[in-house]
Structure formats: C-alpha cells, structure tokens
Specification:
This protein has 240 residues and is mostly beta strands. 2% of the residues lie in helices and 25% in strands. It has one helix and 14 strands, in the order E-E-E-E-E-E-E-E-E-E-E-E-E-E-H. The protein has a five-stranded mixed sheet, with no helix packed on it. Strands 3, 4, 7, 12 and 13 form a five-stranded mixed sheet that branches. A hairpin with a 5-residue loop joins strand 12 and strand 13. The protein is globular and about 45 Å long.
Length: 240
C-alpha cells in the first residue's frame, strides 16, 4: 500500500538500555534491530513520555521497570523445524533460562505511529495507547509496528497449534524509566503469565520452552483463518 512520508525519530528517553552484544543470535541479516522505540513524526511526545511524578492514575495497574538489557539475555530466536508447528520454516522465541510467573520477558519495539498511519497488511502491529487515552486531544490511538524494524519480541508466536494449555505469556502495558529528569515512557512488554490466585494460571516458562501469546481472535478472523476451529479457542493473553 502507498506509505505516508514520515520521518522516524528515536524514542524520547535519554537512556539507552545496557548492551550485551551487537545483535541477538539468529537476528536476520540487513533487518534493523532496535534498542528503543522509533517515533513517527505525528506522534506527540507528551502522549508517551511523562515525568514520573506526573504519572496518570493508570499507574496503579501498569508497572514501572528499568530499561532492560538489549539484546535480551533470557530469550533466543530459534528456527522452527517441527513440520507440525504453524510457523514451520520461520522462527520463534525460546527461553534460555527459567522465566518466573509475572516477569518481563522482553519489550515490544518497533515504530510508534498513529491510527492514520496503520498498515492493514502488517502482522506486527500492536496497540499501545487507545484513542480514549488521548486526554481530550485529536491524536487518536497509537500502535507499535515491528514489520520493518524491531527486536526479539517480533518473533513471539501465537499459542494456537503450539501449546494446548494456552499461552504462557501476554502483552502488557509498562512504563520504562529514563536516565535523567525522572522521565518514564509508555511501552508494551511481553510478560510471563501470572500464577493466579490458585497458582494454576501460569507456572512460568521453562528453559528451552517457546514463549507464546494470544494474538486474539480478531487477528485470525481478519486473515480468514477461523475456519475448522483454528483460532477459536481463547484462553487469555494479549490482543494484537
């Protein structure tokens, strides 16, 4: 589809995450690797970056975390060689150590853009801020698209056809701390499912296990893949 002419800009956070190496193992050649969000020129900084002392009431449910290392040391991009896997011949994201319930796996990075710039053909667009959070402005919603640039999180697969028990991780909103000025930035994180009140919802992710989320029924319905029961079971997780 024709693309709007936009100028991507780096995130407004002054802090870069600690670097563990130049690129993750298994990262595709000639594909831009991000350590922070890039911004479309139409995304207003005040919508995503605020002083920590001025956080909105949603902070009660949105955690504040330090900027995690990049590349992420707790996951690895791995080719999918199982012919029965829906992503056979592609890649998935696998744990390199045990990941405890409720822990942050990796941030979801890409280009932050407004609704008007959304690419309906993208399989990597995740909602960050809804239009209802615009504070009375006319900015609409903001999403993060990792179709043309991103990090390890773009390789997280849907659980359907992979894990009968359902997803073991989910997308959540998160505030990421900056280095100076007490600023925090709204981001999306991939988190291990919480254990739940009875300790049955999530037991963590074991070393070598694939990290999988729920893309949501709408994702599969839009792609005509709901027939035959595929994509109809919904057991939690995030919405793409």
């Amino acid at each position: 589809m024709p693309q709007r002419r936009i100028s991507d800009k780096p995130s407004r956070l002054s802090q870069s995450p600690p670097q563990t190496s130049s690129l993750p193992k298994g990262w595709p050649a000639n594909f831009p690797y991000l350590r922070t969000l890039t911004y479309s020129s139409t995304v207003l900084p005040k919508r995503l970056v605020v002083p920590r002392t001025c956080l909105p009431p949603t902070t009660d449910t949105i955690p504040i975390v330090p900027n995690p290392p990049a590349p992420a040391p707790n996951v690895r991009i791995t080719p999918i060689r199982d012919p029965a896997h829906p992503a056979h011949g592609q890649h998935g994201l696998f744990a390199t150590r045990r990941l405890a319930p409720d822990s942050l796996v990796v941030l979801y990075l890409g280009r932050a853009h407004t609704d008007a710039e959304s690419d309906p053909a993208s399989d990597y667009d995740v909602r960050l801020v809804g239009a209802e959070d615009d504070g009375g402005g006319d900015g609409g919603g903001i999403s993060v698209d990792a179709a043309r640039e991103g990090n390890e999180a773009r390789f997280v697969n849907d659980y359907r056809g992979v894990r009968r028990e359902g997803p073991n991780a989910e997308f959540r909103d998160v505030w990421v701390e900056g280095a100076t000025g007490g600023m925090v930035e709204r981001r999306i994180g991939v988190f291990v499912l919480t254990a739940g009140k009875a300790g049955r919802r999530g037991k963590g992710i074991e070393k070598g296990e694939e990290v999988v989320v729920s893309y949501g029924k709408g994702f599969w319905r839009e792609r005509g893949m709901m027939a035959g029961g595929f994509g109809e079971k919904e057991e939690g997780g995030g919405e793409v």
